[in-house]
Design a protein that fits this description.
about 230 residues, alpha/beta, 4-stranded parallel beta sheet, about 40% helix
Length: about 230
């Protein structure tokens, strides 16, 4: 008779089994730094839809990825890595960029918080912008930043066309901005729910925590463009 396994062993075994196939591991690598729709994953990896659906189903069953509905085009879904299932997985790829620009549609909350977090944790310069910027930064974003030791009191909203420079690494932190940036292929996408839709401090704090986790994962992978090899 087999002895009882230590707590969590079966869950870890499912994760290892799911990752023990090159295509599924490639999906995880692709989602490590940003979210993507199944169609985007299929195009990037050259996988036909039926085969991709099979691999994604197994990754979902193992608790490695989950789906979320786009807040922009409700017909779309995005795949998102569940990092708790991969606690020992760290970014291995290095990207060089002169600057990281966080973009959301209104540039009033998520992109502002992401840029503030990045500025505190990385020496790579940062900026934020919107595809349809609001008149001001959301007051609850300012309050949330203050609660976590950041300041947005002097932050202003900007249109992407007035901010973006060649070779910037663009990180779209909302679904609508990602879908509007179809001409910018080399970017990352973080499917962070819009806290302004709920308009509560808890929603803004949840967005902050989501962004903080993602910034922590991305910082080690982005090096200054002028850094010596």
């Amino acid at each position: 008779m087999i002895a009882d396994w230590p707590s969590g062993t079966a869950d870890r075994a499912r994760v290892h089994a799911a990752l023990g196939e090159p295509a599924r591991l490639a999906v995880v690598d692709l989602l490590l730094l940003g979210d993507a729709s199944p169609g985007e994953v299929g195009r990037r990896l050259g996988l036909p839809g039926n085969l991709l659906a099979h691999h994604v189903k197994l990754l979902e069953q193992a608790g490695i990825v989950r789906r979320s509905r786009s807040e922009g085009d409700r017909r779309r879904t995005y795949l998102r890595l569940r990092t708790a299932a991969l606690a020992d997985l760290v970014p291995t790829g290095v990207r060089r960029a002169p600057r990281v620009v966080f973009v959301c549609s209104r540039n009033s909350a998520r992109s502002q918080l992401a840029a503030a977090l990045w500025h505190r944790r990385s020496r790579v310069p940062t900026a934020s912008a919107g595809t349809r910027p609001a008149d001001r930064v959301h007051p609850l974003a300012v309050a949330t930043a203050r609660a976590h030791g950041l300041s947005l009191t002097r932050a202003r909203t900007h249109h992407l066309r007035d901010v973006l420079r060649p070779d910037d690494l663009v990180v779209a932190v909302c679904d609508s901005a990602h879908e509007e940036l179809a001409d910018h292929d080399d970017r990352l996408h973080w499917s962070v729910p819009d806290p302004a839709a709920a308009g509560t401090p808890d929603a803004f704090d949840a967005a902050y925590r989501d962004l903080a986790d993602r910034v922590d994962r991305l910082v080690p992978a982005v090096h200054p463009a002028t850094e010596d090899s």
